[in-house]
From TrEMBL:
<dbReference type="Pfam" id="PF12697">
    <property type="entry name" value="Abhydrolase_6"/>
</dbReference>
<dbReference type="InterPro" id="IPR029058">
    <property type="entry name" value="AB_hydrolase_fold"/>
</dbReference>
<dbReference type="GO" id="GO:0016020">
    <property type="term" value="C:membrane"/>
</dbReference>
<protein>
    <submittedName>
        <fullName>Pimeloyl-ACP methyl ester carboxylesterase</fullName>
    </submittedName>
</protein>
<feature type="domain" description="AB hydrolase-1">
    <location>
        <begin position="16"/>
        <end position="228"/>
    </location>
</feature>
<dbReference type="InterPro" id="IPR000073">
    <property type="entry name" value="AB_hydrolase_1"/>
</dbReference>
<dbReference type="GO" id="GO:0003824">
    <property type="term" value="F:catalytic activity"/>
</dbReference>
<dbReference type="InterPro" id="IPR050266">
    <property type="entry name" value="AB_hydrolase_sf"/>
</dbReference>
Length: 255
């Protein structure tokens, strides 16, 4: 079994596994979803490299996906935000029979958007940035990364240890190379939902491409942050409707 630490909210109802992104953690990424614990059993793991889960020198999305797949147990709704969305899609491809529904929130699955002009520009910008940035300057690296994405976020100084750890992990990622297995996921019968907030045009094109490839529902909460789930009630209503639709359709696979 996975040795990842996890937040666990709720004791009854369908299981939901929520996967955080690069500059966040389980508790902070999904704080607005804790209110759903009255009807779902939510498991929000800390990906490897994010305390209190075990340390790693290099983030490996495939290893992450295998560990997330173990948490699906007899069946779960699967939700991933940012890089956690890429991990969630790879996990769903590993264990499609255990997925009730799939929701991804602005996943940086850049190869899936290749060939679309704004996505191509973002791919080039990210690749060039990693090639030239000083990865030992963690505040500077994160600030430059956020600037490329058009995310207006002032980092605290000094960096708190969890954020320092998260940025160090980010320096080992290669988002312009980290695609999602859309061709494998498209024929899977569970419903798919792709959500964005409108802040990063390149991510919008990637999301459009994924929605086309996955035959997924596409939802834009325009003016929302990159981590759209943080808007709370409006996102939660869409998410619950997605879960309930999947369950009504009998998309949950038997164990």
């Amino acid at each position: 079994m996975s040795d990842l630490a996890a937040e666990r909210w709720g004791t009854s109802g369908p299981r939901v596994v929520m996967v955080h992104g690069s500059l966040s953690s389980a508790a902070t990424a999904f704080a607005e979803q804790k209110v759903l614990a009255d009807r779902y059993q939510i498991v929000a793991p800390y990906r490897r490299g994010y305390s209190p889960s075990p340390h790693t020198d290099t983030i490996d999305p495939d290893r992450d996906a295998a560990e997330i797949a173990e948490l699906l147990c007899d069946g779960a709704h699967l939700v991933g935000t940012s890089m956690g969305g890429v991990v969630a899609m790879r996990a769903a491809a590993l264990a499609p029979d255990q997925v009730r529904s799939l929701t991804v929130i602005e996943p940086p699955a850049m190869p899936n958007g290749a060939g679309r002009p704004v996505a191509d520009d973002l791919i080039a910008a990210l690749s060039a940035y990693w090639a030239g940035a000083d990865s030992s300057d963690l505040p500077g690296f994160a600030a430059g990364f956020l600037e490329i994405l058009g995310i207006d976020l002032v980092l605290p100084s000094p960096l708190p240890p969890p954020l320092e750890e998260a940025i160090r992990n980010l320096t080992t990622e290669r988002p312009w190379l980290t695609g999602a297995p859309a061709a494998e996921l498209a024929p899977a019968p569970f419903p798919k939902l792709v959500v964005t907030g409108g802040g990063t045009p390149g991510f919008e094109e990637v999301a459009d491409a994924l929605a086309d490839e996955l035959l997924a529902k596409r939802v834009l909460f325009d003016g929302s942050p990159h981590a759209v789930q943080r808007i709370g009630a409006r996102f939660n209503e869409e998410l619950v409707a997605h879960f309930e639709s999947a369950d009504r359709a009998g998309s949950a696979y038997s164990s």
